[in-house]
Amino acid sequence: MSDDGRVVEKIVTKFILSTCRHPRRLRDYAVKAAFACALLARQHPEDDDDVQHIPLVTGSVAEFYIEPMLPHIGDVDIMSYVNNNLAVPQGHLPPRPLPAAFHNYVNVWEITDSHLPGYVYLVLRSFVSNNADIGRHDGEPFEYEGQWIYLTMGSDTEFEWHGPAQLHPEYITYKQQLPLSLDLVYCVRCLSWPLQAADWQLRQRDYGWPDSTTVAHVASNGCDVVHALHRQCREDEWMRKHQWRLSFSRAEIALINSWMPLQQIAYHILRVFMKTEQLTETANNSGVGTLSNYHIKTLMLWACERKSLSWWTDDSSFVRICVELLHTLAVWLIEARCPHYFINNCNLVNKSCVLEMTGSRLLLIDKERLSSWFVTDYIKQSVQMCPKSISRMFDDVSTNTKLENVVSAVVDWRLNTTAVDLWYDFNWSEYCVARLVSIHSVCERTCVYLTKELSKIDGRLSVYFTILVFLHVAVKTAKGALIENLIKALVPVLATSQLIGAQKYGDEHDFSLVNKVITSKRKYKQLAESSTNISASELVELLQQSSTELLTTFRQLEARDFGSVVTIVTTDFEALYAYKHGDYQRCLQLSTQNVHTLLSAKRVHSIPIFPEFLQFLDDDIISLTALTLIVDPECRDDRCYACVTQLTLSLYLMTQCQLKLRHSLASLAQTLDYIEIAERTHKGDSLDHLTLKLTERKLTYCATSVLFGKRYDL
Q1: Same-domain check for residues 89 and 198
Q2: Among candidates 65, 74, 75, which has minimal Cα distance to 27?
């Protein structure tokens, strides 16, 4: 390799390693995946309310903790089992007692080998409960197109099929709201490690990965069985009904999350390279599409086990790592052997002229060629995401010095925007929580699932979800919904989120904030335990009061964590609550303070206007919101929702209080000046603009009345 080539190699390595962020604390697509799972979890596959779906996010969303510059999440994959069915290895009994997630009565299906490694049949063997074996039934493999669909989902006419994946109409609608596609695969849970992969636990590992603790954890988590056909059996009618495949998605999530960042980045780069070069089935090459991301995942799993730590870290060239991995894959394709990582004697590829040609192409890739691809494809695409002042620099990278200048500029920009990007992701996730609670409503099962899952993604979102549930129940109660039914949705939120708050925030946040959250929940828990003794109006009032306290605490968390990139006032809802209850002096004091803080801010926070928040606002703002949704269809879009900034809301409240308290002309004129500054420096969305104009008109009308000695009416 020439000296110039080695320089480019170093520049590429710098770019890849310096622009990839890790660990990623918050990912908006993980929030959306959690909501998709929650919608699934609340469905009843049968008439029995205790029969339910138990979902798991798998694939890229669950595996990657890095954030490279180019998109690395292709879709949202969800695997779900029904809790009244359980698979066990042949000759084994189910564990007793069964985990709490399972139904009290469970159909036990025995996993039996087929003639193809990794593919199995399921035979119904017994019915068991957590208390005793209530019966045994030996039978033929079940009929998938009849009995099994009925057991899992009911009528199969309600669903849209995508190969082994299946989508309910509600998910088809939800899928349209996601920027990523959503694939749902139903499975049968197996709590034991399968016999077909028994050797994986005992395998000699010379370089200590995975370590014994990880191996034990993976094995203890068992596997799943999915209804899928081997490519050789697709024309066989009997196989189409009876053949299943062992799935190790749970194991893969645990293993890939144990990788070093460098290994995750290599996995991402190989996926991008194979797709860009149209070598995988994700590309538009249906005739060639015999490779998939799963083959690349298998390659990486073997490499992490068979390569020493020094192989990954001692050489400063990331390009060299990728070239050697591609050459390993090339040999596999030429020799028609891609060994399954978990199952011995299971080959993931067939002998094929196309695969041999692909392997031959990959063998020709050397460090110089791959470095060139990085520059002309990967880095070029990444630079397009930067400001024009940086992206234009890429128009001329004719020398290594110019290329290095571009890369340095991108790296600096990436580093300097990290905090802003985290805020945008959190703000967008916050909006997703509000929107999905508002649109899809809540129930006890949804609340239990989401409180736990959101706490894993970001503990602050679990607190925000609690707030939204309170507000949602308040709206429903005010409209005449049954109090007792709504209380059922609140109790699990209180119990789960209180425990999570104590654990999660005890490590990462001030105890004073935790105590505020828990104290509010304790008050409401007492209410929940005596719900039959409270009226609807009392319930609404206590919910709004508790929500205001929690929202103030939540704002304090936001202001502390993101105050370096956005100005957030913490008393906006406290001011709203005071205004709603006629405490205009308190509202004016808080709103005036907020206006003075926000007027000179470079970036201000916005509040999405959903029904949950409208209950705090007056008729004028509610009417403006409705008008905005009517005349501006984009505000009904998933990404262009109606909202107002904290500055606009504070100016509106400040004005209303000044008018109700009959402030002087000088005071009103000063507020008009504030509005002019806000309109000039903070151009918001449609609702924001309309609210400022309405506020301005009110002030102008009342100021004119005062000037001419007239008494104005509000």
Answers
A1: yes
A2: 65
Question: Which residues lie closer than 8 Å to 680 by C-beta, 6 or more apart?
Answer: none
Residues 73 and 128 in one domain: yes
How far is 692 from 652, CA to CA, in rounded Å? 7
Q: Does residue 494 fall inside a structural domain?
A: no
At residue 232, the pLDDT reads 80
Cα dihedral 231, 234, 235, 236 sign: positive
SS3 604: strand
Q: What is the pLDDT of residue 542?
A: 84
Task: Establish if 567 belongs to a structural domain.
Answer: no
From residue 46, give the alpha-carbon distance in Å to each of 101, 150, 160, 436: 16, 8, 19, 25
* Pairwise CA distance, residues 232 & 523, whole Å: 62
399/401 Cα distance (integer angstroms): 5
Question: What pLDDT, on the 0 to 100 scale, is given for residue 671?
Answer: 95
Give me the residues paired with residue 121 across strands: 112
Q: Which residues pair with 643 in a beta bridge?
A: 608
| Side-chain half-sphere exposure of 286, counting CA atoms within 13 A | 0
Domain that holds residue 368: 260-385
Same domain (yes/no): 198, 211: yes
Selection from 166, 170, 168 nearest residue 187 by Cα = 166
Question: Residue 160's pLDDT is what?
Answer: 40
Length of the chain: 714
- Point out which residues pair with 77 in neighbouring strands: 58, 183
| Residues whose CB is less than 8 angstroms from the CB of residue 586 and which lie 6 or more positions away in sequence, other chains included | 575, 578
Closest CA to 269 of 219, 208, 322, 311: 322
Specify the number of domains making up the chain.
3
**Judgement on whether residues 231 and 265 belong to the same structural domain of the protein:** no
Q: Are residues 224 and 367 in the same domain?
A: no
- Give the pLDDT score at 366: 95
Indicate the Cα dihedral angle 550, 555, 557, 560, nearest 10°.
Answer: -160
Q: Note whether residue 25 is domain-resident.
A: no
pTM of the model: 0.84
Q: Looking at 221, 240, 258, which one is the last position of a domain? A: 258
Say what the pLDDT of residue 173 is: 43
The residues that bridge with 78 in the sheet, in sequence order, are: 57, 184
Determine, yes or no, domain membership for 101. Answer: yes
User: Residue 195's closest CA among 95, 74, 105, 110?
Assistant: 110
Same domain for 185 and 282: no
pLDDT at 489: 64
Alpha helices in 335-379 (DSSP H): 353-363, 367-373
Instruction: State the DSSP H helix or E strand holding residue 500, giving kind and residue range, or none if neither.
Output: helix 483-500
Low-confidence ranges of the chain (pLDDT < 70): 1, 24-25, 44, 46-47, 131-180, 281-290, 482-534, 631-641, 684, 711-714
